């Protein structure tokens, strides 16, 4: 098991410099950091990869799609742009030194088109299948994140993420599950995790308010036992957003301070993660 933390905890904007955050992550004792590719360039990626290694950390990546790069679009040119962007994201993930890229990679975040959900899901799965050779060449695994109904209509449940991953036909495509979203969407969290076990490639933790795990009402012993039953032994990353009043938090509807201070939240999260999952 590897314990990580998303750099977004400290970022006011997604484009903020990540390198200064690495010292805090290393000093706290995390195995690695998760970074967003938003605002990333080839030059930044290479520098970030060096900095991550210099701090003795590992790294995993997350990303999403813009509306003009929607792989579910009825417009073939837009779908092609989305596919090209994902190829770049996969290459950039490898350039940073990561072997995992995950997130809302199947459609733009916040875009809803429920009448065409089946067709859109098929287009996403087809696009992921076309990325199989590039994923293999870069030695990267792609994780489809199931998120709640207020953020997408396309992949809300663990089952939907696993079905889309299987439909891609690529063993380099799997599912990312997140306790914040599981807590909203799943009637049976244990059952959802176990049923998606064959596709589970990445796991995010925060409590029901996106704060420190263990501070709210997520059923953590159920989550722990489900991951054990699923034989999951990879990244567990704390993805917390806790400070109001900055653009990145506003994107995720954080309208009040969930925790008083990010670094303290990270320290408490790691202590809980070790106690619960090690």
Could you please describe the fold and organization of this structure?
44% of the residues lie in helices and 15% in strands. It has an eight-stranded parallel barrel with strand order 1-2-3-4-5-6-7-8, surrounded by seven helices. The chain is globular. The model has no long low-confidence stretch (mean pLDDT 97). It is built from eleven helices and eight strands. The chain has a single domain (2-277), classed as Divalent-metal-dependent TIM barrel enzymes (TIM Barrel, Alpha-Beta Barrel). The chain is of the alpha/beta class and 278 residues long.
**Count of helices?**
11
CATH topology name, in short, is TIM Barrel
> Quick one: CATH class?
Alpha Beta
In percent, how helical is the residue content? 40-55%
- What's the rounded overall pLDDT mean? 97
Give me the Rg, rounded: 17 Å
Given helix and strand content, the structural type is alpha/beta
Order of neighbouring strands in the sheet with most strands: 1-2-3-4-5-6-7-8
Output the CATH homologous superfamily.
Answer: Divalent-metal-dependent TIM barrel enzymes
Q: Could you say how many structural domains there are in total?
A: 1
What are the secondary-structure elements, in order, as H or E? EHEHEHEHHEHEHHEHEHH
Architecture, according to CATH? Alpha-Beta Barrel
Quaternary form: single chain
Quick one: biggest sheet?
Answer: 8 strands, parallel, barrel
Quick one: how many beta strands? 8
User: Beta-strand percentage?
Assistant: 15-25%
Show unreliable segments.
none
- How would you sum up the global shape? globular
Query: How far do the termini sit from each other?
Result: 7 Å
């Amino acid at each position: 098991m590897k314990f990580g933390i998303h750099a977004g905890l400290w970022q006011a904007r997604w484009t903020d410099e990540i390198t200064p955050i690495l010292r805090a992550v290393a000093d706290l004792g995390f195995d690695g950091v998760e970074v967003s590719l938003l605002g990333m360039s080839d030059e930044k990626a290479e520098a970030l990869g060096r900095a991550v290694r210099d701090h003795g950390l590992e790294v995993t990546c997350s990303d999403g799609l813009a509306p003009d790069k929607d792989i579910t679009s009825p417009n073939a040119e837009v779908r092609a742009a989305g596919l090209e962007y994902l190829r770049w994201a996969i290459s950039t993930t490898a350039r940073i030194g990561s072997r995992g890229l995950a997130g809302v990679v199947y459609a733009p975040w916040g875009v809803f088109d429920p009448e065409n959900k089946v067709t859109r899901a098929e287009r996403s799965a087809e696009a992921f299948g076309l990325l199989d050779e590039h994923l293999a060449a870069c030695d990267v695994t792609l994780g489809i994140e199931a998120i709640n109904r207020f953020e997408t209509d396309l992949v809300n449940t663990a089952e939907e993420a696993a079905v889309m991953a299987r439909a891609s036909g690529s063993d380099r495509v799997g599912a990312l599950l997140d306790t914040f979203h599981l807590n909203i969407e799943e009637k049976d969290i244990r059952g959802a995790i176990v049923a998606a076990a064959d596709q589970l490639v990445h796991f995010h933790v925060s409590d029901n308010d996106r704060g420190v795990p263990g501070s709210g009402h997520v059923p953590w012993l159920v989550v722990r036992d489900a991951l054990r039953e699923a034989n999951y032994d990879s990244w567990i990353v704390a993805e917390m957003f806790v400070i109001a009043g900055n653009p990145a938090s506003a994107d995720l509807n954080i309208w009040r301070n969930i925790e008083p201070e990010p670094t303290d939240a990270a320290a408490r999260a790691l202590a809980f993660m070790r106690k619960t999952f090690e």
